[in-house]
Design a protein that fits this description.
mainly alpha, single chain, 7% strand, 2 strands, elongated, 92 residues
């Protein structure tokens, strides 16, 4: 998973656990639909998806580049993985 400033990769599992605790305290179950308003690279939702108990998951993000990225992935686009050396040779 890609990490970036503001990303939830490092704390996604803890956020997921807090969501589960809260839902269970209110409903005694963890099978409610889940809506992720700040999807980004999926740092929280990946943990929710892995539990496999939700009827559906819905994600959105304000950042158009991220939305475009995920739509491309859904359409079958495969990202090209480059080495650190290749990246440092890119002149923007």
């Amino acid at each position: 998973m890609t990490q970036y400033t503001g990303g939830k990769a490092r704390i996604g599992k803890k956020i997921h656990e807090k969501i589960r605790e809260y839902e269970y305290s209110k409903t005694n179950e963890n099978t409610l639909p889940y809506f992720e308003p700040f999807f980004g690279m999926g740092g929280v939702m990946k943990h929710i998806a892995l539990e496999g108990e939700r009827p559906f998951l819905l994600a959105c993000d304000y950042e158009e580049c991220i939305v475009s990225f995920w739509r491309s992935i859904q359409s079958g686009w495969k990202p090209h993985i480059i080495t650190k050396e290749e990246y440092s040779n890119i002149h923007l």
